[in-house]
């Protein structure tokens, strides 16, 4: 479990870096253009990793996935666009803080209802308190 949490923290580090880099790219080429470039680079990187034999599944099983799982591609464009835009306007720390609060709140709702095939995890007073404390911390970080 500790390794999983460390990997999650590393992904958070990558997200802050990615948002900052995407914001810088968008200043050079435009927001939607940056979103497109980032998706192309990511797709080419994924293809190279698959061709190198690093995949663990089969692309031929794509029909077995529920239709809604393909919305991740659409969300990816929206995320890149919105993160780059918010970082440019609010700064890296403020935007990332708001992003994290939004992620945790959404994750708690998904867990609570067991949406998208995840195991249902009951919502508790402690989780609610944790989210409120996180939102309060975000407010403190965002206030000047």
Textual characterization of the structure:
This protein is mostly helical and 144 residues long. It has a domain at 65-144. The chain has helices at residues 2-29, 31-51, 71-90, 92-113, 125-142. Helix 1 packs across helix 2 and helix 3 (71-90) runs antiparallel to helix 4. The radius of gyration is 18 Å and the shape is globular. The model has no long low-confidence stretch (mean pLDDT 92).
What is the chain-wise order of helices and strands?
Answer: HHHHH
- Helix count equals 5
Oligomer: single chain
Output the radius of gyration.
18 Å
Main pleated sheet: none
Mean pLDDT: 92
Helix amount: over 70%
Secondary structure: elements and pairs:
Elements: H1 2-29, H2 31-51, H3 71-90, H4 92-113, H5 125-142
Short characterization:
With 144 residues, the chain is mostly helical. The chain has 5 helices and no strands. The chain is globular.
């Amino acid at each position: 479990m500790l390794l999983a949490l460390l990997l999650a923290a590393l992904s958070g580090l990558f997200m802050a870096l990615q948002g900052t880099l995407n914001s810088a790219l968008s200043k050079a080429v435009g927001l939607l253009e940056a979103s497109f470039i980032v998706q192309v680079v990511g797709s080419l990187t994924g293809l190279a990793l698959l061709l190198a034999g690093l995949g663990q599944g089969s692309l031929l099983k794509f029909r077995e996935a529920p239709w809604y799982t393909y919305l991740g591609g659409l969300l990816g464009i929206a995320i890149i666009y919105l993160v780059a835009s918010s970082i440019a306007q609010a700064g890296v720390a403020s935007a990332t803080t708001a992003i994290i609060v939004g992620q945790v709140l959404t994750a708690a709702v998904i867990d609570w209802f067991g949406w998208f095939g995840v195991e249902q995890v009951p919502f508790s007073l402690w989780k609610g308190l944790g989210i409120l404390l996180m939102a309060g911390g975000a407010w403190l970080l965002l206030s000047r």
